[in-house]
């Protein structure tokens, strides 16, 4: 099995019309970076037209406006392209349970089959590595790992995914010091691998 630092990862983030796909909310942006050996080697960023006006609170948080989404493709089209782009790589997200809920709902809505991907949650990783720290949000992690971060760009999927990627590689270095060096060893730690490839 490959060393964790030798794997290729797709670090992704979603922006959505609300907090729950079960109540009809949907994805309005998918941003992702493919990373290997600490470096970004490819990017994916697509805005999505949800077919309804955005709640002003969502626009306030994300800076995404109705005008920006006019003429953009549907959730179904973009999710299908994203999954094809991901290929066999390992997915990584911060607070991945949120993003997973929307992706899995999209798989259900558009009959894309079973969601069979390895998914690592950097929120769970942070709590494992730093159990005595009070805050584990992305802004706090950027400060903790001394990574340059523009808070004004926070909550846009493309920017957040790259920031999460930088944090993730810092975490992998710390895991190596604890002799956690493979996906198999990572899977033994609760609340870090939120989904596993069958």
How would you characterize this protein structure?
Helix content is 39%, strand content 19%. It has 198 residues and is of the alpha/beta class. It has one domain: Nucleotidyltransferase, domain 5 (2-Layer Sandwich), CATH 3.30.420.10.
Runs in which pLDDT lies below 50 for 5 or more consecutive residues are none
Distance between the termini: 16 Å
* CATH architecture call: 2-Layer Sandwich
Strand order of the largest sheet: 3-2-1-4-5-6
In brief, what are we looking at here?
With 198 residues, this protein is of the alpha/beta class.
Strand and helix map with partners:
Blueprint: E1 9-16, E2 27-36, E3 39-47, H1 56-62, H2 66-69, H3 75-86, E4 90-93, H4 96-109, E5 119-121, H5 122-129, H6 138-144, H7 157-177, H8 183-187, E6 193-195
Parallel strand pairs: 1-4, 4-5
Antiparallel strand pairs: 1-2, 2-3, 5-6
Helix pairs in contact: 5-7
Q: Any key phrases for this structure?
A:
about 200 residues; alpha/beta; Nucleotidyltransferase, domain 5; 6-stranded mixed beta sheet; 8 helices; about 40% helix; about 20% strand
